[in-house]
Design a protein that fits this description.
This protein is mainly beta. The chain is built from two helices and 15 strands. The strands form two sheets. The protein has a six-stranded antiparallel beta barrel with strand order 3-4-5-9-8-7. The chain has a six-stranded antiparallel beta barrel with strand order 10-11-12-15-14-13.
Length: 295
């Protein structure tokens, strides 16, 4: 994360809530929560500071071009020396979908620009300035004691890009279907953020949709997807927050079903899994309303 902070306008849009309202457990101390979220934000899941794994833990270098993949540099609020990254998905030529905790001013500050369509964190693709961020009005940070609620946000770019956006799926596939997650999160599975190493190359990991019962009670529901790695000791981690979970449509094309949000159980390390993803289809109506209103 570079330190070029371009002021963004954080807004709460008073649009009707999308499907359902997740609940989370009790809170930890605010400072601990912020540290965790920064870890997250600079990590794989909005709350994944409770665990870590290989940059998308035990993932592999990206095997194809993902023109909609976005990297979002962030700086820690409690510790301005902390430079991390969040992920995002280009869903419109001027709009990026990410996790709300990735733009939460209590946790991090955006560095002012994002990079779209590159397999490299610090080079290639298209760089655009951020002009506005809009978090879901129901967003609440679980602060390490439970899942985040309505953990979704939109980032507006200063002008359109040439990269092709990813389509949001009509609905997530059934539990068990193959999915894929992407991210630039830490490659070191350590709770100590001073030991995190963010890879230059985009990482990918093949996963599957998990059943609600495969995440901790109260974590997964219609708005939060339980995600299971198809490989041992692998999952999204600190720095992957906000990044995409993808599934194939009937024609074999990638479509977006999830936004990296946090761990699927309390107190687990990233590599232990499961992961928790905000359902992009569940918020499609809110997303359309925000883009239309701010078009």
């Amino acid at each position: 994360m570079d330190h070029l902070f371009l002021i963004t306008e954080a807004e709460h849009v008073t649009q009707p809530r999308a499907i359902g309202e997740p609940v989370f457990g009790s809170k930890t101390s605010r400072r601990g929560a912020r540290t965790a979220a920064v870890a997250l934000a600079g990590a794989a899941c909005a709350v994944m500071a409770t665990g870590t794994a290989e940059a998308v833990v035990n993932g592999t270098d990206s095997t194809q071009v993902y023109p909609w993949m976005v990297s979002i540099p962030v700086t820690g609020v409690d510790d301005p020396t902390f430079k991390g990254v969040c992920g995002g998905s280009l869903i419109d030529r001027e709009w990026v979908l990410t996790a709300a905790h990735c733009v939460d001013p209590a946790l991090v500050s955006l560095d002012g620009t994002v990079r779209i369509g590159s397999a490299w964190r610090n080079s290639g693709g298209t760089v655009r300035s951020v002009t506005k961020t809009l978090s879901h009005p129901g967003y609440l940070n679980g602060e390490g004691a439970g899942p985040n609620r309505d953990d979704v946000a939109l980032v507006r770019l200063d002008r359109p890009v040439a990269e092709k956006p990813v389509r949001i799926a009509g609905r997530p596939g059934r539990p068990g279907i193959p999915t894929r997650i992407l991210g630039f999160g830490t490659v070191n599975d350590t709770p100590d953020r001073t030991g995190w190493v963010f890879p230059d190359r985009l990482q990918e990991l093949d996963t599957r949709r998990g059943a609600v019962s495969e995440c901790a009670p109260g974590y997964a529901d219609r708005t939060r997807l339980c995600t299971i790695s198809r490989k041992p000791e692998a999952m999204a981690c600190n720095g992957d927050s906000g990044g995409p979970q993808l599934q194939r449509d009937r024609k074999g094309r990638w479509e977006l079903i999830g936004v990296t949000s946090g761990p699927g159980a309390p107190g687990v390390r990233c590599s232990e899994g499961p992961g928790l993803y905000t359902s992009a289809p569940a918020y499609a109506r809110w997303i359309r309303a925000v883009i239309t209103r701010n078009g």
